[in-house]
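for ur thesis appendix - Beta-lactamase class A catalytic domain-containing protein. copy paste whatever u need, i formatted it the way the template wanted (i think)
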Amino acid sequence: MDTAGAQIRVGVSGHAVKLSTLPATGTQPFRVVVDVVSGRVISGLSAPSATKPGVIPQPATSFCAGVPDTSGVPSVPVTLPAGVSGNVSFMAAVIDPLTLRPTRVALLNPDALHPMASTFKQLVLWSVLRDVDAGRLTLQQTFSTTPQNRSLESYTPGERTVLQLAKASISHSENTAADILMRATTPDRVQDLIDGVGTCHTSVLMPTKAYWSVKAGLLPQDFDPADLLAATAPLLNGDDATRRTLARRAVADSLQVDVPRLRAALDAFDTGRAYDPNIDWQVENHTTPREMVDLISYAYLRNGLSPSQNTLYWTLMSSGCCQPDRKASYAYWGAKSGTDWGLLNLTGLVRTRDGQYVAYAYMNHQSQVHDVLALQRQKPLVTNWIAGVVDRLTH
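the 3d part is after this line
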């Protein structure tokens, strides 16, 4: 029976676990999600010899001169919605469209480093449209999906145009479409675009299949799976040349990784004893809420695109997840979310009916809710909470 929302507690290998049912959708079957209840051991059952560490702090980044300082900028307090867990960092800012400087802010640990998940796809789109303007790509240029370049999750097989891939990467957050586009524009051009804004701690050097292959331990030639934490540290701490070289090799080598094998190996990493949140932010594309807000401001308000490509960017981003229940009360709401194991990110730009612009970045890592589909259920709650912050900033 489909009893979505029902919960059962049982003992499994000495731990309390929670089983939550998720309803069937058009693309997903009815599911039961299993989460270990942190810190709980059922009486009478022996605990395992070792346990995973609890939530650890996100890395704190140093001051970045290229990103606007909000010291002294008027602010509104932030109180998180009930039900979220783990590390949450957040920034929302009213943006002056001429200077791109924040004039009013809401802040919660905005300089903490977080993995980006799918929120990086909006920056890939920006780079692709700049390539279209430069004549390096065309919107009708076609690319084929192959066993080598496809990534995890659902995708459309066959040939698609750049425009079709762009729509899929934002409106459906299709990993394969975003990966194909990132290879077309090249990770180096995406990173150059980001660096040109002035950020210091944002790295977008790998498509999804590449960074998941690293985390899954399937690229041992550069990243020893026996000590993945140490092997992947240069992706975060190395100089620019080192990080780019390692990323290029991962991007190339991941094309040889079989997707079913990747799915199994990544699931084993996420749910196994080898999982370490440090590996998430070392390997995956990463940023801070402060730098993401700055990048969003540039991507919408000073993107260097021709009028037609600028219109396309705004149009595509308006199809992204997620918009609040009261979307109709705003002149525009563009968004891109990202979910992964224990991770939920929500980013976007809002234009109010009186012409104010608000950029926001909500980043939640190490959530006690691990399963991606279970995290999806938090999106409406958090998006409506963000809308409330937007309202307080603009009234």
